[in-house]
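Sharing a chain and its predicted structure for anyone who wants a worked example. Both blocks are below, sequence first, tokens second.
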Amino acid sequence: MIFWAYNIITVIAFVFIVPFISLFLLIRGLMDNNSKERLGLLSSSLIPQKGRNQRIWIHAVSIGEVKLAKVIVRVIKEREGEFSLVISTTTRSGRQTALREMPKDTVVIYSPIDIYWCVRRSLNQVSPDLFINLETEIWPNFLWACKKLNIPTFLINGRISPRSLNYYKRFRFLMKDVLSTYKLLSMISMSDSQRIISMGAEPKRVVVGGNAKYDLLVEDAKPELSKRMAEIYKIDDNQPVFIAGSTRGGEEEIMIEAYLSLLEDCPGIILIIAPRHIERCGDIESMIRSYNLNYCLRSHIENDKGRDRSNNIILVDIYGELFGLYSLGTIIFCGGSLVPFGGQNILEAAVWGKPVIYGPSMEHFLEAKALLERVGAGFIVEDKDELVKTAKWLLENPDESDRLGRLARNEIESNIGSAKKQVENIFRLLD
């Protein structure tokens, strides 16, 4: 009954809503030649014959999950046996990141929309031996189809924010049935475990597996990456840098005004704005020009020549560099937090040994927030004035800032090992 009710609703939504969404994506340039994969239409040349390899399908929504998939893939490949890997993403930026960073023999596709015949066609073509869902993007039809095809499914690095929990609980009758399809739900923390159990998951299938992103962060925070970013952006060791990462609409103006306030006491400070969605760069450019400020786009910086030093504002209009950029920051603000979007992964900055500033909306990263605040390296601000006050304190107390940053890095290092633990749990159950 639940299956049929859900599918009636999704088919109606598909007929009446998807055409408008498709038109919007087309206008914004967010569709590409591979968008047909969302309907389960995969090129036969894309999926090789499976042979004796065990085929594993890993779903990673966007850039952050793809980076997590990278460390999971590494751990899987370290095991005995032969594996073929398929990575699916929801966003185009996620797909581009996967194509760039995954091993060359990895198949990268878009995940099908959650219409039953689309997911069934996709699963039949890929023919996975198991499915791994990273973090917590739950699609009922996909999981139901896996169950009917006897494909074991696993959720790892799962997290449920308090805001998401309130939404999911409204559909507990549906969630209980859907969550029962998982053989294992490996959650980041005890709080996440309790939340998913309250949504209807069977307690015996839920474990606390830790956060595999710690492994990835420590692995990727390499000195050579920091050096490369400094060369491209022409940042000297003694030059103060204010980085506003993963910003959302409504935050860039606050960052610009905070930067202007900091300029009064720190004339040489550089502002680097890296919006969460680079499609908004045109609007941000107009905003910067309205303040009569000089700036340059990252895409206009030649790798060999670097930026023109007269431009002390850089707008990052390409994907994939923010993590390395954080290594250059003197002041770091992580966006999606002064506006109600639940924040971004503040540990990407902290792993470089940096204290981090963020707003009050951090519902999606409560564990990371607690970790930094436990050692005093996380600073919550409510508005521009508090941001400026905190930034000035960090600029005026560099030794203390460095000490707090080292504490944050040490705390992250103490949590590594989760990726291997969660992968081992999966294969133990399969065996």
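Comments welcome. The CA atoms of residues 28 and 279 lie 8 Å apart.
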